[in-house]
């Protein structure tokens, strides 16, 4: 981030950036290795492990709409703290799971915590960050996310090689500490929506057809995004037969983002067609995933993973920055929460269906199948985002013509 932009960034936003880093350190240390723990030590299939991950994902994003409305109604800070502590309990519980249902309870608690702190945190970022520097701050947040991922691979690999219990407790501790930091150091943020009830707030979002359409298209993007937590780690272990190589490939993705995210954002700074950029990013991700079908060594996996990472660098800052532009100021949390359905449905389907397709492809000897599906989805998202961009431009031209006619 440029020094002058960092100087314009409020202290509370800097605190949120720090907590975002710590959350990602704990989250990404646990989730990829949870898959390997379930398929290795517990002996589950990839599809069954994907079901646990999808339950966690849907518990979070399925209730995030309600969590966002609650945050708008009762305040972002308190909602964040409660959610962080519930997530801490859920992650720590994985250390003590012995029965199948134990894992699902831990997954549900982990998700419900996220349904509270995620939309509240995103809304707090948007509300506290001055609009002229918002895109740069969101880009830098993505860089910090990936720094956290790199660190998480070191921590995750080290703790998982000793005992999964320590890894689970570490992840829970990260979220518990973040809850304390937010409680004691984040400035109070007044509730933004004190006039409307919970159900009427939900109704406003649901009736926004443009935003609903945007959310539905993003389901395809999150199908691609979720392969990072399930099929990519499994493929790396299958190709190289070394669990440590999972951390190497995931770290390669993260290091690419750390080094290049701000540059990519600067290169695209003058390109204001944000929906088209999201589509281009999804297409590049799909191509990178498709090429994994031909990877037969660690270096090819890393090269294809870099292409996937480039797609996320194009898409991610625009995905999160579009929401506050489309949302009324008093309902940013609700809009972020509803937008979570794209991750709830697309991400959950991506994990469960992705795992099932991967298992099926193994059985059929069709290793290309899961990655070809990713390419098709990337093409579809790119096309739909381009169409949406054209629709919005046509709508804006119509409004400008009407204003001119009235004047």
UniProtKB/TrEMBL annotation:
InterPro entries: MFS (IPR011701), MFS_dom (IPR020846), MFS_trans_sf (IPR036259), MFS_Transporters (IPR050171), Tet-R_TetA/multi-R_MdtG-like (IPR001958). The chain crosses the membrane at residues 12-31, 37-55, 76-96, 166-190, 211-232, 244-262, 274-295, 301-320, 332-353, 365-383. Its main location: membrane. Keywords: Cell membrane, Membrane, Transmembrane, Transmembrane helix, Transport. It is a multi-pass membrane protein. It is found in: Cell membrane. Residues 12-390 form the Major facilitator superfamily (MFS) profile domain. The keyword Transmembrane helix applies. The keyword Membrane applies. Pfam families: MFS_1. It comes from the Bacteria. Gene3D superfamilies: MFS general substrate transporter like domains. This is MFS transporter. It comes from Brevibacillus ruminantium.
